[in-house]
Amino acid sequence: MLMYNFCIAIVTAVNLLNNPNDEEISMHALLLIAHGSRREASNQEVRELAARLEQIAGDRFDRVIPAFLELAEPDIPTGVDLCVESGAITVTAVPYFLSAGRHVAADIPAELEKARHKHRAVTVHLSDYLGKHASVPGLLLALALETSETDTKHPLEQATA
Questions:
Q1: Strand positions, DSSP E, the chain
Q2: Per-residue pLDDT of the chain (161 residues; tens, 9 = 90+)
Q3: pTM here?
Q4: Which CATH number fits domain 2-128: 3.90.1150.10, 3.40.50.1400, 3.40.50.2020, 3.40.50.20?
Q5: Residue from 59, 66, 62, 126 nearest 89 by CA
Q6: Where in the chain is the domain with CATH 3.40.50.1400?
């Protein structure tokens, strides 16, 4: 909770600095939703991915905020809160999941529904999950080819490097 309050304070301060006349801000935020892990390095990878997405989003998304279903912060409702606190009136949630298990089919929509009730003036969209995208098979093939053509490490070392 302390981290959440700290994040809200920073976002509010940045908004005030960037908008001293309290003009209406019209923003579209991307909420990148991952599972969350007990391994903090894995959660940090998601945060870094969100930062890279924000850099390349251009004018399509004003903010990219990472959120986690469980085991890490911010959770999904807090992630939506952060989007709204930064001025978003539209939030597009993207599940960073490979298959449509229970989390994608039920848990994430339920968490987003809670956020919709809390922020009734904000439009919250839910995109398809990552694994459903047509580019995934090609990406997997490219990874396999890259590894098989350049791999000089022992196979198990490659997976943990």
A1: 27-34, 63-68, 88-95, 123-126
A2: 434 333 333 344 344 444 455 555 579 999 999 999 999 999 999 999 999 999 999 999 999 999 999 999 999 999 999 999 999 999 999 999 999 999 999 999 999 999 999 999 999 999 999 999 999 999 999 999 999 887 666 565 655 55
A3: 0.78
A4: 3.40.50.1400
A5: 62
A6: 2-128
